Amino acid sequence: MFQGAVAEGAVGEKPAISVVVPMYDEQECVFPLYGKIRDTCDALGKSYDVIFVDDGSRDGTFGALEEIHMQDARVKVLRFRKNYGQTAAMAAGFEYAKGDMIIAMDGDLQNDPADIPRLLGKLEEGYDVICGWRRDRQDNTLTRTIPSVVANWLISKICGVRIHDSGCSLKAYRASAIKKVALYGEMHRFIPAMALLGGARVGEIVVRHHPRRFGQTKYGLSRIWKVFLDLFTVKMLVTFAQRPAAWFGLLSMPFWLAGLIGAGVIAVLFAMGQSPPLVLMGSITLVLACTAFHLISMGILAEAALEAESVLRDPYALPELKEL
User: Fold this and answer.
1) pLDDT interval class at 204 (50, 70, 90)
2) Given its phi and psi angles, is residue 225 left (phi above 0), alpha (psi -120 to 50 degrees) or beta?
3) Which member of 1, 94, 158, 243 has the lowest number of beta carbons within 10 Å of its beta carbon?
4) Taking the model in full, what pTM does it have?
5) Could you give the CA distance from residue 52 to residue 34 in angstroms, rounded to a whole number?
6) Which CATH number fits domain 2-241: 3.40.50.920, 3.50.50.60, 3.40.640.10, 3.90.550.10?
């Protein structure tokens, strides 16, 4: 899926921090961004590496990244053969990250590497995911800011994640939390919601956001439909993981209702002395009832499977007992 060299750390040690940066046609940003990340991470006094993921760039982005990699062994470069999207680039970076703490950020210089120490400081308070909040966002109001506000409100209400800016790429993660999250589609903006499924603690801090200096944004209104589809997927996963029987039971209700209405119509017609098309109406009613029963059965089996998985994972786990 991707090609390119992966360099070891400067002294062969496992880094404490990994910085993951997806890049797509950001040639002008490569050297200034690397300089800012290097200066900030050097000041931390901890070992680190930087993983740049070239998402199929068509300009000189990969050449610039390759040049930096040759000069600094802490810089790793992954290259997609074609453009797979920001989520796929992040997933590749997370997979290769070796640090116990992982910073993700955009490669367009709008995120500020100077916020990395604050993100790590908040993470060390006991959180698993720290999200950046671009409170003073420097983007086009109509095409970027307003759709983002609406999307963040929907994500907060539907997924139950109480943060202001799910779309901000500048986030800090514990590796143990982010490596459990399966990413696809446009799922990178739903990482906090997916992490909550695993019991992660999610926090938020205000971060700086700068106007774009070079090039144009690679994302616009065309991605809105994908975000809504992924939002529905995440909601289903969240609900299913917590109470699969309730989810399938909810899906079965329209079929139960239609089946009961069909049976009631047949009964009323017989009571009125009329002869309904019994075979047709009876078959439809039976199919509706069987579909509802099938959905409920799937929910019960899913709950049983989750319970069995929990027991198999820790066969000695028992409910907490109180001494009398």
Assistant:
1) very high
2) alpha
3) 1
4) 0.69
5) 10
6) 3.90.550.10
